[in-house]
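hey all, quick one before standup. I had two proteins in the batch that finished overnight and I want to keep them in one place so we stop losing track of which output belongs to which input. First protein below, input sequence then structure tokens straight from the run.
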Amino acid sequence: MSTFSLIPHALRKSTGVTGLKRVANSREVLVSLYEETQTLLNSMPSSSAYKKTMSKVTQGRLDAINNSESIDKFEETIAKGQKFPVEQIIEQAEDELSVAKNMMSWKAWEDLQEHPVPGQWKWP
């Protein structure tokens, strides 16, 4: 077991990852990011594959953080055996929010403007 995993989040002075700053209010930051992402996802059409998949992931993580008694327990729940700090989970949530914003502007659920060449999407 690494030293990182033995130190409770509240007592950590660093994330243990070079260049990644510690976030003292990580629970609030994550809840805000997940809620903003869910709001964007909810405005997408229900037929969107991206919406269906990411709504489950985002809601699952939001439930996990809301039901965790501490950030340390949340890290354990999300990490599933891997050891990485909540600040990396925050980066993932920020990235996913960015992708959701892009998906809204791209309207990826709409039909293609040009149809693909026959056989383009076939794999041997």
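OK second protein, same deal, sequence then tokens:
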Amino acid sequence: MQTYGYAFMLSLTGYFGISFVLALIKLFGALVAVTVTTGRKAMTMCLSFLIFSKPFTFHYIWSGLLVIIGIFLNIYSKNKDRIRLPSLRNVWNIIQKKQTSSLSQMV
């Protein structure tokens, strides 16, 4: 009987979770729903590091950076006309100017 109680509670919480996500999609759109669910997953991972002791490796940082880059590329692809990124040549020129100015300050 205890197994059926666990199955019922798991089914009920799953139903409420799916209903919440579908309501988010209907009211605010898919982007907000995906952002909320991704934030929930990130919060769950951070809490699992705080509650349970597990080794923290560089792979977690690398994975987080990949997720952030993916979100940025998604937003950028939808707003190309409003977001103007500098070209690589402009970035290189800025880096060169900073290096030469810092070298001249050292002397």
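Flagging for whoever picks this up: The chain has a mean pLDDT of 84. The radius of gyration is 23 Å.
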